[in-house]
From TrEMBL:
The keyword Signal applies. One of its GO terms (biological process) is immune response. This is C-C motif chemokine 4-like. Residues 1-18 form the signal peptide. The lineage of its organism: Eukaryota, Metazoa, Chordata, Craniata, Vertebrata.
């Protein structure tokens, strides 16, 4: 009986910890832009989370502003590739 209670208690602790990580906030885009941002003003770019209804890219400017772009916007796709390649080259050095 003690083993069962200990096992259930441990399971509850582990499950609550896992739930905390799975419910963390996810950045999604509700509104997308079609205005290009100069490359020297871009700090980072990442894809929206898979759970987001609108798939796209989130660009962070050097001033900290977040701008969303649709995944089909060619400029955003090219920017994503450029930044990913630059990061990969930096890691190899």
């Amino acid at each position: 009986m003690k083993t069962l209670c200990l096992s259930l208690g441990l399971l509850l602790v582990v499950a609550s910890e896992a739930l905390q990580y799975s419910t963390s906030p996810v950045k999604c885009c509700n509104v997308v832009s079609n205005t290009r941002v100069p490359r020297n003003k871009v700090s980072s770019i990442k894809k929206t989370h898979n759970s987001c209804m609108k798939k796209g890219f989130i660009v962070k400017t050097v001033k900290g502003k977040l701008i969303c772009f649709d995944q089909s916007f060619e400029w955003a796709k090219n920017l994503y590739k450029q930044i990913r390649n630059a990061e990969g080259n930096r890691l190899q050095q």
